[in-house]
Design brief:
Helix content is about 65%, strand content about 5%. α2 packs across α9, α4 packs antiparallel against α11 and α9 runs antiparallel to α17. It is a multi-pass membrane protein.
Length: about 450
Amino acid sequence: MTIATGSDEQAQGYFPRWKLKTSGVIMPEERLPWGQTIVSGLQHCVAMSGSTIIAPLLMGFDPNVAVLFSGIGTLIFFVIVAGRVPSYLGSSFAFIAVVIAATGYAGQGPNPNISVALGGIVGAGVLYGVIALIVMWLGTGWVERLMPPAVTGAVVAAIGLNLAPVAVKAVSANGFDTGIGLATVLMIGVVAVAAPGLWRRLPIILGAIGGYLLYMLFANGLGFGKPIDFTQLSAAPWLGLPSFTTPTFQADAIFLIAPVAVILVAENLGHIKAVGAMTGRSLDAYLGRALFADSLATIVAAFGGGTGVTTYAENIGVMAATKVYSTLLFAFAATVSILLGFSPKFGALILSIPGPVIGGLSIVLFGLIAAMAGRIWVENKVDFANPANLITVAVALTAGAGDLTLKFGAFTIGGIGTATFGAIILYQILTSPLARRVE
């Protein structure tokens, strides 16, 4: 079975007709009964919410705005891919390290330099869009040659390792904070390993809830730590406009943040391949559109104060568990997210999460980013007996973990940028015909 493209799209109309199906595998152009569609869409909202909410908190962004633009971005994606690629666009963790570096964010409360970060995210979105247009024109072969699994894995690992000090610092203020952070880590692990059914797919959000309640018990109830202040939560209205912020464009911040586009390309490419494998049909024809949609969604989000967005593995997990790939679920989930974005009460609840709990979440999430590199290398059978692969990975990991910073006049490239560009350039040099001739 092949997906409708080109003339098939014209014959069927731009969007699928979403034929009703009540059992078995539900393909992207099919749908469940409306009641089940609503429930399944809400399930995707829950799946994305943990990471989509935590990422802006770690950067000092407004979580309401981030959730709002995740919904808007998902609808943009839905329209551009003609409703034929199931995907939710949530906050990208690839931006965290570079945003913190570009803004000097201290890790608590609103980021005072958020506008500078937004300008850099717009720059990343523009670079991402240029790559998307080239893919639409030339195909995907050049991307896979420029960023083979050895390189993409190295860059992903470098991002996770670069963030590690931020996570550790968040739980190191005192013994109580350390205990709460580690307890949160343990709860996430237990849920991921032992929770029944679909609950196992929600370790981050359940771990956050468990850590929150534990902190409230020992701090508010027993006085072991600073109590959670519910004043802002009580005063916040149920409905209201989010706090939008416009970007400020500074060359050094743009130069630092823009390379994240390379990671977004790799994430989206992996998403298209994964969904294609699950549905038993190739979606490669839509890769260019998917990249362009993600880039446009990132630019739109940054112009309003939202985080950069990317396709979400959490939602792939839900699809794998349920065998429901209907794209209508994501249109509904996006609509719910937009509504949540207009609830200050929801945002105040998220902002009340204690710092040690966020630190515990960060330890897991940043570690998972680094560990994802291992999965990339294993699944693609990367040969580390090959010196080109081994040296490229080794240099990228050290540059990222040590935050190797390069300065060119007024421009500064932090550890993430150095690791990204270094891995790409070094690999191309080590695998060039000249290097093989010397060998």
